[in-house]
């Protein structure tokens, strides 16, 4: 065992622990969720610590050997080492102080080990690792960096899904079917047009997520506790922001008003809202896929989803749309996370939002979940979807959807009567028109030609 102390007294720590007394107390104080702080957030904090140590060393505020040791330890954390040492619960009081201290203590112990071979030594978690910093500028800056890091693969996943949907749009361009509004027969539509509409929705999400990255690039690093920059020199503030920008490899910039960025968390609500929008679109698409593939004999059955696993422990041969269902559940989770982020952001008071750990947990988790389920939807569902053209044609011919195309030729009232007669008698719309002598086969062929029914204009009247 080794001993560490803080303002509340001394505590014993296991020899293998790189964290210190503050982290130990946090694990005892916050036995809440069992979730660990997101590893990308830990990596972003460590990156900031590396930049700060280097700048402080170059400016003569830290001994060169200590600065180098902290930077080396931080590199190891960024690379994913010592993951088991970040033990604080993701949900914690203190506006992220426990996470910041967990990183400070691990880096200090590891830097001491680099310098002396022992976890105790000259490097102090606050005097050295946290020099010229506060949780209040480190934590929100790290959250912004981590969010940008996770936005990029999410945007790329959207691009891949968009491409998968567009491939199906082209594949199914000639498959005509019944369109439905309010789950009732509406107008004919091409199956490819439905996939094209989904692709366009995902394209909007991709663009939104790409653009919202700009909102995350303004940081308050150097603002220290409340954004005023007390205990940090202007020279340090300028240099550390430039160094962090370089290491994070994203276009970060110091905010003109660091008090604003320290106080307000609205940017995370904005980002979460757009992540939620993607979740809404994914959920709507997968609801549609489940409907269109329902059956396979007693439902719509217009498409077939890839068979991924047996669907029942009692019903032989049953296969369920499990990928679509999983996406729905992920979307519900993300939508709920957005509500938590909204409540946390509006609950900030005066110079700081104490609930940033909740925002970080839900925002970063939502991005990762949506990235995973977007990739899963494309690879394990959309790419393997097959159309059932005969079933689509059967349902179309048995529906009343074509009656709308008769309105310019017969008028609304007569077209309505045709539709009602077809419904009551079980005949098709075309058969009723022909049998009642309202139009001939040639005219009906022109009206009910699939291309004419699914593009702008008046079916059966070329050029109109």
Q: Key terms for this structure?
A:
single chain; 464 residues; mainly alpha; Fumarase C, Chain B, domain 1; Fumarase C, Chain A, domain 2; Ribonucleotide Reductase Protein R1, domain 1; two-stranded antiparallel sheet; elongated
Can you offer a commentary on this structure?
The protein is mainly α and about 475 residues long. It folds into 3 domains: about 130 residues, Fumarase/aspartase (N-terminal domain) (Fumarase C, Chain B, domain 1); about 200 residues, Fumarase C, Chain A, domain 2 (Up-down Bundle); about 55 residues, Ribonucleotide Reductase Protein R1, domain 1 (Orthogonal Bundle). The protein has 18 helices and 8 strands. The strands form 4 sheets. Strands 1-2 form a two-stranded antiparallel ribbon. α6 packs antiparallel against α7. It is elongated and about 100 Å long. The model has no long low-confidence stretch (mean pLDDT about 95).
Q: Sketch the topology as an H/E string, one letter per element.
A: EEHHHHHHEEHEHEHHEHHEHHHHHH
Radius of gyration: 30 Å
Any idea what the shape is? elongated
What do we call the CATH homologous superfamily of the largest domain? Fumarase/aspartase (Central domain)
Helix % is 55-70%
* Number of spatially distinct domains: 3
CATH architecture of the largest domain: Up-down Bundle
Average per-residue pLDDT, rounded, comes to 95
Q: Helical region count? A: 18
Q: Topology, pairings included?
A:
Blueprint: E1 2-6, E2 9-13, H1 21-29, H2 39-58, H3 64-78, H4 97-116, H5 125-129, H6 135-171, E3 176-181, E4 184-190, H7 191-212, E5 218-219, H8 234-248, E6 253-254, H9 258-263, H10 266-292, E7 303-304, H11 322-346, H12 356-380, E8 386-387, H13 389-397, H14 407-410, H15 412-425, H16 429-435, H17 441-447, H18 450-453
Parallel strand pairs: 5-6
Antiparallel strand pairs: 1-2, 3-4, 7-8
Helix pairs in contact: 2-3, 2-4, 2-6, 2-8, 3-4, 4-6, 6-7, 6-12, 7-10, 10-11, 10-12, 11-12, 15-16
């Amino acid at each position: 065992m080794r001993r560490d102390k803080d303002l509340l007294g001394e505590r014993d720590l296991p020899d293998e622990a790189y964290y210190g007394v503050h982290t130990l107390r946090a694990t005892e104080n916050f036995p809440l969720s069992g979730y660990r702080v997101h590893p990308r957030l830990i990596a972003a904090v460590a990156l900031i610590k590396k930049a700060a140590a280097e700048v402080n060393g170059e400016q003569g505020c830290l001994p060169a050997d200590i600065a180098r040791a902290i930077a080396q330890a931080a590199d190891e954390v960024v690379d994913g080492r010592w993951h088991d040492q970040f033990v604080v619960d993701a949900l914690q009081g203190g506006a992220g102080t426990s996470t910041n201290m967990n990183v400070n203590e691990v880096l200090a112990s590891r830097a001491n080990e680099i310098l002396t071979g022992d976890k105790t030594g000259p490097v102090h978690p606050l005097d050295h690792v946290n020099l010229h910093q506060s949780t209040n500028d480190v934590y929100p800056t790290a959250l912004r960096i981590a969010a940008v890091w996770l936005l990029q693969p999410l945007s790329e996943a959207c691009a891949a899904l968009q491409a998968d949907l567009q491939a199906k749009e082209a594949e199914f361009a000639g498959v005509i079917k019944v369109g439905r509004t309010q789950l009732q027969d509406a107008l004919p539509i091409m199956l490819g047009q439905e996939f094209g509409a989904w692709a366009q929705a995902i394209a909007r999400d991709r663009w939104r997520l790409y653009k919202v990255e700009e909102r995350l690039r303004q940081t308050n690093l150097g603002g220290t506790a409340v954004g005023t920059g007390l205990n940090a020199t202007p020279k340090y503030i300028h240099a550390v922001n430039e160094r962090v920008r370089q290491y994070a490899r994203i276009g970060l910039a110091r905010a003109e008003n660091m008090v604003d960025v320290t106080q307000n968390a609205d940017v995370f609500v904005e980002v979460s809202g757009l992540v939620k929008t993607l979740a809404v679109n994914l959920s709507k698409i997968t609801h549609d896929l489940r409907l269109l593939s329902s059956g396979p004999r007693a439902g719509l059955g217009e498409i077939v989803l890839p068979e991924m696993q047996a669907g029942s422990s009692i019903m032989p041969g049953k296969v369920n749309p499990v990928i679509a269902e999983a996406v729905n559940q992920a979307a519900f989770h993300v939508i709920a996370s957005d509500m938590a982020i909204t409540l946390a952001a509006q609950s900030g008071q005066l110079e700081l939002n104490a609930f940033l750990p909740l925002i970080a947990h839900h925002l970063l988790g939502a991005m990762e979940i949506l990235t995973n389920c977007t990739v899963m939807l494309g690879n394990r569902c959309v790419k393997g979807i097959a159309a059932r053209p005969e079933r689509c044609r059967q349902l179309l011919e048995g529906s009343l959807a074509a009656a709308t195309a008769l309105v310019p030729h017969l008028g609304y009232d007569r077209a309505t009567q045709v539709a009602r007669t077809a419904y009551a008698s079980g005949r098709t719309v075309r058969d009723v028109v022909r049998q009642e002598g309202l139009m001939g086969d040639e005219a009906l062929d022109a009206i009910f030609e699939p291309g004419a029914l699914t593009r702008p204009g008046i079916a059966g009247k070329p050029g109109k």
